[in-house]
C-alpha cells in the first residue's frame, strides 16, 4: 500500500511472532492481528512470505530515502510541476505516434510475407524479398523509437515521482500536525468547560447562574411527541396554554455537582458570618495505563457458564479500584440527594432520587474493565465531610457469593445504606453482571424512606471486537412512607431499534397510581422531568394496547453528567471522583482497599509485580477459608452451633419497612479511627 488506511499495518516496523497451534501474531504501532493457518506447513509458508515482504518493504524504503534530493520539498514549485507535466504529455504523444507507426509498418510487413508465400517464379521472389527487408527494417527502427520513448517517459516519471512523494509526505505530516492541534484544542475546550462547571454558582452581583439560561423560554409553546415503549405506554405533549405558569429559572437550572476541589473555600456559618477554611487538594490524575496486550478469550473460553468471581484472572483485565470503591462511586452525584432533602414535595423528591439512581451508571459507559474482588473483611472509607458533607464506609461481608455492605451518613439531611451481592456469569459472547439486593435512602426531616434495586450490566464482544457495555432492566423505586413510586425502564440496545441509545424512561406516581411526572433521558448523559398537567386515553398502540396521552409542562434538567477529566482515556476513563478514590490516606483501617498491594502496584503500572501479589493474596484467602471450614467441621462433630464469619462493622438485621434481612452499619468505625485503635481488624494483606 502506498498509504495507510483502516485494516493495514506497516510491514517495515511489524513484529512477526510465531505461536503454537499454527498461530501467528503481527504487531505494529499498537495494532495486533492474530492469524491462524490450517497446518504447520502453511503456517511456515506464511511466515516466510511475510518475512520476505518485510525485507522487501525495508529495502524499498531505504532506496527511496537514498535517492533524489535529501532536503524535503515543503512547497513544490508550480512552474516546475507544470513543466514536468508538459514533458510527460509530449513523451506520451511520442509514444502514441510510435504506436501508430508500429501498427502501420507491422501490417505492411505482414502483407509482404503473405505475398512472398504466393510467389511462383524466382524473379518475383527476389523483388519481394527486397520489399520484405525494407519493411522489416522500418518496423525495427519504429520499434526502437518506441522503446526509447518509453525509456524517456519512465525516466521523467521516476525523477518527478520522488519529488511528488516527498511533497505528499509533507502534506501528510502537516495534516497529522493539524489533527494533533485540533485534538489539543478540544482538550483545552473540555478543560475550560469543566472549570466553568466547577466555578461558584453565583455571579459577582449575587444573582444565581443557570446553565439553561433563557434559551428554553423561546420554545415554550413547542409541542413534542415521544412514544415510549414503557408500561403503561404513554405519549407526552408539551402544554401550549399560556396560563400555565412556568417554574422560576432557579428551579429549572441544572443541578450542579459538589463543591470543586479548590484549596480555599468560603463557608457561611449559622450566625451569617463568613469563614475561610483550608481544604485539602485532591489528586486529579494517576499514572497512564500501560499498553499490555492480552487475549481475554484465551482465558475465558474454558469458563463459559461459570460465576465470574470464581475465575482467576490477571490484573490486565482489572482497573485499579476494588468493588467497594466502585460501590462508593455511586455517590458521584450526591448533590442530587442534597437537593432532594430540601424538597417539600415528596413527588419532586422522588424525581431527584430517580435521577440519582440513574446517575450511578454514567461512569460505566467506557469502563469495561473489572474491579478487584475485595478480600473477606476488606473495608473502604471515604470521608468527604469537608466538601460534600458525607462519610461513607464499606465492608466485604461475604466472599462466595461476593457481597458488600455500605453505609453513608450526610450532614445535609440524608442517610443511605445498601447490601449488594454480585451475581456474574460468562455467557460466551458476553458477560452479565446482576447486582442483587436493595438500596435504602432515608431523609432526616421528612422521614421518607426510599428503596430500589439495580439493573443488569452486560459487557459485549468478549470474543472479537471492541468491548462495550450496556445497562438493561427495570428499577422500581418505592417511598415506604407515602407509597409513592417510580418505574424506570433501561431500554436495552438493539441494532434495529430507532430509539435513542442508552435510553431511560420513567413515570412518577402517587400512592393511588396517578402519574404526576414523566422522566426521560439516557443513563450516560442526562435525565429530565416534565410535570403532567393532563392525561387521557389515546389511540391504540402496539399489540392492541392503548397509549396514555400525557400533557406536560416544559421538561427541566434534573441531572447532567460532568465531562471526564483531561487524558481520562489513558487513566481507565476515571471520573474526577474515581481518580481520588485510591489516593493514599493517613489513619485509615489496615483493611482499607487503599492499602491493598496488588491494586496499588497495578495503579503504578507494575502489572507483573501486581499479578504476583494478587496470586499471593488469593492463595492466603483460600488457606483462611479451609481453616474456617475445618473449624466448622470440628464444631459440628462436637455438637455445638456453628458461627460463621462475622463482619466487623456491620451486622444482619430485619428492615422494619421491607421486612427483609440485610446487613446494616452497627457503628464504631469512625470512633475507632478517631482513637486510631484498629486492634480488632484482621490482617488480610
From TrEMBL:
Native organism:
Salvelinus namaycush
Extract one GO molecular function annotation from the record: cholesterol binding
- What topology does it adopt in the membrane? Peripheral membrane protein
Q: Which PANTHER family match?
A: OXYSTEROL-BINDING PROTEIN (PTHR10972:SF70), OXYSTEROL-BINDING PROTEIN-RELATED (PTHR10972)
Q: What are the alphabetically sorted keywords of the record?
A: Coiled coil, Lipid transport, Lipid-binding, Membrane, Phosphoprotein, Transport
For region Disordered, the annotated ranges are 54-76, 197-219, 239-282
Q: Where is the PH domain?
A: 1-55
The family classification in the record reads: Belongs to the OSBP family.
Q: Which SUPFAM superfamilies match?
A: Oxysterol-binding protein-like, PH domain-like
Biological process terms in GO annotation:
lipid transport
Q: Which InterPro entries match?
A: OSBP_sf, Oxysterol-bd, Oxysterol-bd_CS, PH-like_dom_sf, PH_domain
The protein here is known as Oxysterol-binding protein
Question: Which parts of the chain are coiled coil?
Answer: 168-195
Instruction: Enumerate the subcellular locations listed in this protein's record, separating them with semicolons.
Output: Membrane
Q: Name one GO cellular component term.
A: perinuclear endoplasmic reticulum
Pfam families referenced in this protein's UniProt entry, alphabetically = Oxysterol_BP
Work out whether the entry's keyword set contains Transport. Answer: yes
Q: Which gene encodes it?
A: LOC120021315
